[in-house]
Amino acid sequence: MLRDAVSTSVCDAEARHTAEWQIHWLLRIALFCEFIGHGAFGVLTKAAWVPYYGLFGIPDAWAWPLMPVVGGVDIALGILTLITPRRACLLYMSFWGLFTALLRPLTGEGWWEFFERSYNFGVPLLMLWVHGPAANATAWFTEITVIPRFSVARAQQYQWALQGIMASMLIGHGGFALAMGKQNLIQMYDAVGFGSLSVPLSTLSAWIGGFEMLLGVCCLRARFSAFFLFVCVWKLATELLYVPAQAYGAWWEVMERGSSYVAPLLWLVLQRVVKHTQFHAFGVHSPFRSLS
User: Is the Cβ–Cβ distance between 240 and 254 less than 8 Å?
Assistant: First the structure.
């Protein structure tokens, strides 16, 4: 029977054939993309960020030179997590993702903006949860070199957390169109030719938003792989609309949302853990290699 306590070194060649190894690396890649993409806007500077500084009494004249500093920290964290992940960085990323998501409603942009960014803080927090808190202060800053073994119960807990993250991000993004009527979405749909349809773009955008919100609600109940594969494709396709719309920093926008594409992929890999463990428990041959 599989045990929770079994773990393996990240450097162990056998570990690379396991779902745990794949999850570990998907998390690292997701956070790399998220923080590199977000940090790039700090380096490039972004007018939409100015009100966030104003919330703390920082004048506009100071906000612009501070943006590259903030962006540089994000980029450094993204690179560090890809190369040598550490719990202290994951804790900071979780806090920073939550903080930046809260800045949106606090500056009057609405709570849909917060819910849509659930992956910004949810995914780094999930990686910290997967590897567990450090035993002492020094360990928080030590490189993570052990990947824990997942039991069925633990894998399913992670799946439920991911379903909550995906539900929030889809409902929030759907709210941009259905509740807020965001113009940038209408411009994106126009850029890919939806304007030639007989339906007004504002109406079409609202319909798509309603569909996304329904998709988000379904995330809370769905338990089959094809659904989450569709969520991954849908999320990537909708964010790629920044490119034909020629949005400012379009490819950085796509990259920044890396965690939102990886979340459903993580669910799919965790489902393999669940099925493999169930096969093992009933004495059925499985193609996946065990860590023990």
Answer: yes
